[in-house]
Each structure stands twice: as structure tokens, then as C-alpha cells.
Amino acid sequence: MRTFELTYPHSMVLNELPETVSAIGFFDGIHKGHQKVIQTAVNEAKDRGMESAVITFHPHPSVVLKKDVQHVKYITPIREKQEILQKLDVDRLYIIQFNKELAALSPQAFVDHFLKGLHIKHVIAGFDFSYGHKGKGNMQTIEEHANGVFSTTQVDKVVLDGEKISSTKIRSLLKEGRLEEVTNLLGRPLSVSGTVVKGDQRGRTIGYPTANISVNEEVLLPKVGVYAVKVLYKHEVYEGMASLGFKPTFTDQLEEPVLEVNIFDYNNDLYGEELRVEWHSFIREEKKFTGVEALVNEIAADENKVRRYFSA
């Protein structure tokens, strides 16, 4: 998959671009609803003998349009989004920088520049996709703006248990630690990648060494607590338990939660290595313990729960 980062106005040359079938949307999470849109584009492209494309945006429009929003945490930051799209057999990814200039474009100007101008011959989007200044363009107006240059397909909402699958729903579930439901909506476990950094090394002294993982500040993490996780490292998958929290037994100085992972049956040095953590199930809330012995007893109980969870 080739990736192109574009700003307005872009400098792509129309006659140097292949004719493509493109899915378009923000696609945070690339959940089952998004996957239907993207897979429709991939299949349509194959049927037409064209390349498939995905057009997406960064950062989230709210960062640009809402004065009180400084940054947004993403279910799938750009890097993770690229990796997932690669696995979905997308040929080309266009990442359009969302800024005030882009937000001010009329719907017609947006279509002319970023759809016609990228040699898109068929556009596929969800029923609620909007574009152009104040979102005035939508799936009811896009045929008019296309003016015969490209055709379109609208993908209706994807429903699970009577409710629309949405990024908003997934964010709500993550706040509640409902990971199994998140997995069901995404079609895969939520995952986060990060580099192992040195922590206080206290885990080694109590028999539960942990990898302290520094993650991108743009990553949306689930609520604070203890979780059953899987860790992907150098094409191997390990089971383990993760603590995401403020370590209240030992300090009250932390402003952001720390991610620590105890990898079962693994004792090698991982400092500086990149790990991917898959979140599988919430085990318990974070607690403040009266001492180390009480903490160790609870961690041992956590380990038993996690091992039982994965064995089941």
C-alpha cells in the first residue's frame, strides 16, 4: 500500500494518477461498519480492474473547529490505521490534513479537488458521510457535485444487537472497560503499540517484573484498571496481565496513567523494544493497598484470573 499525505491545495497530477475506486471517511477505529465501506471499495476496484484507495483525514475536525478541543485521542492513530488498511488489501491511502483552509472549502470545491482531482472514478462512503464547509455536502448531494465524472455507492449503517456500530459507542465502552464488546464491534481486539522504558523496577523485587510501555499520547486507552492482555513481540504472542493506572500504593505524584505489563513465563530484557498490547478483558479496578504483601496477594489472584480467562 502506498501512502500519500496531502494538504490543500495538493500537487498531485491527474494524468499521472491511476483511476481508482475510493472509500472516504475519518474511519477512527476501522470497526465493522468502516470495514464494510472499505471492503466494498476493495471489491469494486477488483471488479473494475482498478486500484483501491482510502481517503481519510488527520487530525480530527474537532481539533480544528472547536476552540475548547486541543487534541483528540484516537482508537486507531494514523500508524495503526495504516497497518489495518494494509491488511485489508487497500492499494493507496490518501491522508488529507484537516485544517481551516480545508474546512472552508465549499462541497463542490472539495469534490473537484480531492475526488475528481485524484482520479477517483467511484466513491464509496457511509450513509452519514459529509464534506465541504459546515458539512453541507452529503450522500444526497454528491452525485450532483460529481457531475458524471465518478459514480457513487452509499453503504447503510451496520447494526449489532439493534444498535449502530460507531466510534462513539466504542469510546463509551472503553471508558467502562467493556473490552469484549469492543472486540466484537472492531472485529479484533483493541491494540496499542509502545516502547519499553525503564520504570522504578519495583515489580522485580516482588516477583512480578513488568514492562513499562510508553505509548503515543494520541492513543485512546481503556479506563484505569487491571486487564487480561496478549503481548505481540517479534512475531510471537504471549499472555499476560496489564496494569493501567497511577500506582496509588506507592505514589500520589502521577498525572497520567502508566501502562505496565507482566508477561507470563517470560523473563528476558525488553528495554528499548517495541511491543504491541492487545486488550482482552477487564479484571478489576485499581486499588490502593495497605502494604506490599497485600498488593502481592492481589496480583497473584489477578494472575490466576487471567490464566483461567485465557485457558477458557
Automatic annotation (TrEMBL):
SUPFAM superfamilies given in the database record: Nucleotidylyl transferase (SSF52374), Riboflavin kinase-like (SSF82114)
Transmembrane segments: none
Species classification: Bacteria, Bacillati, Bacillota, Bacilli, Bacillales
Riboflavin kinase domain residues: 185-311
Pathway terms, separated by semicolons: Cofactor biosynthesis; FMN biosynthesis; FMN from riboflavin (ATP route): step 1/1; Cofactor biosynthesis; FAD biosynthesis; FAD from FMN: step 1/1
InterPro entries: FAD_synthase, Riboflavin_kinase, Riboflavin_kinase_bac, Riboflavin_kinase_bac/euk, Riboflavin_kinase_dom_sf, Rossmann-like_a/b/a_fold
Protein family membership: Belongs to the ribF family.
Assigned EC number: 2.7.1.26, 2.7.7.2
Reaction(s) catalysed by this chain's protein: riboflavin + ATP = FMN + ADP + H(+); FMN + ATP + H(+) = FAD + diphosphate
Keywords: ATP-binding, FAD, Flavoprotein, FMN, Kinase, Multifunctional enzyme, Nucleotide-binding, Nucleotidyltransferase, Transferase
GO terms assigned for molecular function: FMN adenylyltransferase activity; riboflavin kinase activity
Organism: Oceanobacillus kapialis
Gene that encodes the chain: ribF
Top EC class for this record: transferase
Designated name of the protein: Riboflavin biosynthesis protein
